[in-house]
Write a structure and sequence with these properties.
elongated; 64% helix; 21 helices; 670 residues
């Protein structure tokens, strides 16, 4: 019989080990939700065994608590391993892909300059051609004088704006610039929107400018109306923005083409990309079936920045281990007592007090990563309260036994203080633990003689291991800081290489401008000063032709065959290959290498032909959002990616997906 019982015990031990290994592997290979379900099922299964055998309820509760604490720690270590593996993979991808950063930075700058070139030069030169052509046809002296003055002023503006393209001091246009633009063209204008994000106001300016330029080219004599008005239409298909919109419409009632062949072929396409990147929608076309009825340009843009939708459940990131430690502390302090006594805690009142104090002593471990100093202060306060209740005879077991068995809670927080707080602020932690722990031990029943002297001796003895644990935390913090400094230096060098490539691209672009459009713009100014209207018109037309040729040459330039770098900036190049658009919100800043790669992988999973994504820079990480992928299984893979990065995935009622990726700095102070 004894042999049979021994075999049962061995089999039970093997089964428990196998179950724990299974929980660990689930946490490593599955998302938090599914692996947590497995951990809960195992805990309930363990608790069901003594319940089926008819054990007392307190014994069943003790088994459940103890099993839950052990399972929680095993599950949390598996989650930690999952995150470390994902970060190692991301850093490896970052190292392998950053060689392409300078090339793609140069290509992005080329595209930016090309878009600016079209918007700036085409607008000015087209106005000059239209005004000069009308004056020559009418052969009116006053009209000719007006056309020459306009050519001189617009030509000088074109020269200044073309020279500005090689600098980085361009700022986003606001509503004041839109008002001035409409006034300069003397159109029917009304604006009832006062505030909007900079991206929306800049897109508004570009929409109005391009629409007025096209009206001057193709609708001479038409009445042009410009409206900037709010809308409450919740059915408006916002691609990457929010619910609060305003609409920009520019309409004309039809007219005649002034000068054929003035367009560059990029205006409306570039405008659509600009509006979509700002988080809006764009359309342009004829009104009605009759092509003579006029043209409408319409853009719906966000009127306010939409706050991010973020959640960090208890099982995400470092919080998983923190809450697992809470479960372990409660399980060990209460579970063991419940299993080893006929009347746990010595009665109802001591039981209630002990349960409350155990919770107060364990719960601050949940703040270990976020606020270790406050957490340690709360734990020591709970220990002092336990000491006071022990002196009053309200608790069982005594506080001295509690500290001997569960002092690892205080030491864990001392280590966290060493990691996360500066040493001048953190040095209090081991000294405070030594003082309070010495008081708890000195109150034990085995102390004879002066308890004050015993407290001093015990506190001094505890100071040594507490200082050692704190020093371990300080060494961990210094190692993290060295790694961060190395990553920062690498990023600075990489940014320097990218900036050098951008500067080289800008110099090439400036050289092309000086030999083409800029030269013709200066010739227009000179011809206007000489009052040669035909030369003005021909010079402006030549400038537009040179502009079109330059833009065609840029489009025909060599594109990179390599994959874009796996960084936040590389998302733009990835989107260009899909014909998609990326909108960046918030101040751009360097991110840890792993976070850069996670953001790129998320965008890649959301990417599809023609979609619009939003990359939002947040104080505690980055959020990538866009339409939910339509490929079967894509959302499940995306959820697994976010989970491995320690982030979250959420969906909105409009069929959009938002992925938040945390930027974790475990060595930072509170």
């Amino acid at each position: 019989m004894n042999g049979f019982a021994g075999h049962v015990w061995v089999l039970s031990l093997v089964a428990a080990v196998c179950a724990l290994i299974t929980v660990h592997l689930l946490a490593v290979r599955r998302t938090a939700g599914s692996s947590l379900t497995g951990a809960v099922v195992l805990t309930l299964a363990v608790a069901a065994v003594p319940a089926v055998r008819g054990e007392p309820p307190h014994y069943v509760a003790g088994v459940a608590l103890t099993a839950g604490g052990v399972v929680a720690v095993v599950w949390a270590t598996g989650r930690s391993r999952r995150h470390r593996s994902a970060h190692r993979s991301a850093r490896a991808d970052y190292e392998a892909g950053t060689a392409a950063v300078p090339l793609f930075a140069a290509l992005a700058e080329r595209d930016r300059l090309a878009a600016e070139l079209h918007d700036v030069a085409a607008h000015r030169l087209t106005g000059i051609v239209v005004a000069a052509g009308a004056a020559l046809r009418l052969a009116d002296r006053d009209r000719t004088g007006d056309a020459l003055r306009h050519a001189a002023e617009a030509g000088r503006e074109a020269v200044r704006e073309l020279e500005r393209l090689t600098r980085l001091d361009a700022t986003a246009a606001g509503f004041a610039e839109v008002d001035a633009l409409a006034a300069a063209h003397a159109v029917d204008y009304r604006r009832t929107v006062d505030k909007a994000p900079p991206g929306s106001t800049d897109a508004t300016y570009r929409v109005v400018r391009e629409a007025l330029t096209n009206a001057a080219r193709y609708a001479e004599g038409a009445t042009v109306r410009v409206r900037i008005e709010p809308t409450d239409d919740r059915d408006e298909p916002v691609r990457a923005g929010g619910d609060h919109l305003f609409v920009v419409t520019v309409t004309d009632d039809g007219g005649t083409v002034v000068e054929p062949g003035l367009g560059t072929g990029r205006g409306l396409a570039g405008l659509a990309a600009t509006v979509t990147a700002a988080g809006g929608t764009f359309r342009a076309g004829r009104e009605g079936q009759d092509r003579r009825e006029g043209w409408i340009v319409r853009a719906a843009l966000p009127a306010a920045t939409v706050p991010p939708l973020r959640r960090w459940p208890l099982w995400r990131g470092t919080a998983a281990l923190d809450y697992a430690l809470v479960a372990l502390a409660i399980a060990l302090s209460l579970g063991a007592s419940l299993m080893t006594a006929e009347a746990p805690f010595g009665g109802p009142l001591p039981a209630l007090v002990t349960v409350v104090l155990s919770g107060l002593h364990a719960m601050p471990l949940a703040w270990r990563s976020r606020a270790p100093g406050r957490a340690l202060a709360a734990v020591l306060s709970a220990l002092l309260l336990w000491w006071a209740c022990d002196r009053a005879g309200w608790t069982q077991p005594p506080v001295s036994d509690i500290f001997l068995v569960y002092g690892w809670v205080e030491l864990t927080l001392v280590h966290s203080v060493g990691v996360r707080l500066p040493w001048r602020r953190g040095l209090f932690a081991p000294l405070a633990v030594a003082a309070v722990g010495g008081l708890a031990l000195a109150s034990g029943g085995g102390i004879t003689g002066s308890r004050t002297a015993a407290w001093a001796v015990l506190a001094g003895g505890l100071a040594l291991p507490a200082l050692a644990v704190w020093s371990w935390g300080r060494r961990t913090a210094r190692r993290h800081e060295r790694l961060w400094a190395t990553d920062t230096r690498r990023r600075v060098l990489l940014d320097g290489d990218a900036e050098a490539a951008v500067s080289a691209q800008r110099l090439l672009f400036a050289a092309g401008l000086r030999g083409t459009a800029l030269r013709h713009a200066r010739a227009v100014v000179a011809a206007a000063e000489e009052r040669d209207l035909r030369a003005v018109r021909e010079g402006a037309r030549a400038g537009l032709t040179a502009l079109r040729d330059l833009l065609s040459g840029l489009r025909a330039g060599d594109e990179a065959d390599d994959a874009p770098p796996p960084t936040v900036s590389g998302i733009t190049a990835l989107a260009a290959r899909y014909g998609a658009v990326v909108r960046y919100v918030g101040a751009r800043r360097p991110l840890p290498a792993a976070v850069e790669v996670f953001a790129y992988r998320t965008a890649s999973a959301l990417m599809a032909v023609g979609v619009a994504l939003t990359v939002r820079m947040l104080p505690d990480g980055v959020e990538v959002s866009g339409p939910a992928p339509g490929v079967p299984g894509a959302e499940r893979r995306l959820r697994a990616l976010a989970d491995a990065a320690g982030g979250t995935l959420s969906t909105t009622g409009r069929g959009a997906v938002r992925v938040w990726l945390p930027e974790a700095f475990p060595w930072r102070s509170e």
